[in-house]
Write a structure and sequence with these properties.
The chain is of the alpha+beta class. It has 5 helices and 4 strands. 33% of the residues lie in helices and 19% in strands. The longest helix is centred in the first third of the chain and has 22 residues.
Amino acid sequence: MTDSLTFRLPAQGLAACLLLVSLAGCGSLSGSVSRDTFKPFVPEVVQGNFVSNEQRQALRPGMARAQVREILGTPLIASLFHANRWDYAFSIQRQGVPAQNFKLTVYFQGDVLEQVDSDVLPSEAEFAGRLVRPKSVGKLPNLQASEEELKKFAKTSRADGPTAASSPAVLPRSYPPLEPAVR
């Protein structure tokens, strides 16, 4: 007589309940969570030496290696197998800004600069401008009042005029944002 009472739910009923609960949960999230809510963090990756167009223009055939190193800095790649060649490469990847890649190669004949090959290099000002993320302004609040609103304000300010000094001013419950929300 040790029969225990068990509650048996058919497998189809259990599957239907599970489906309804999961659909109800997804339906409630669609209004409160946007596509931009969960973005993964992407770290800034900077590699190499940035060489500007001004530095590139300062190079002249016949310069010594020390002079080239003084203008461009230490090369990213100086191979023992290619002692007559220095490679300068630069790349930067930031979230919200397109990736930038630049290459410059200098060739030497002995200890003297012979040739310079490079991509189209930006000036220092152009490069700095490319690093800034474009800001979206968003919707600005309406800062105009109708004649009715102005008259209403004028009436309330005249009525509160003499008593305003004796009682504290009533502050609004919320203020409009000074800047648009950043997402």
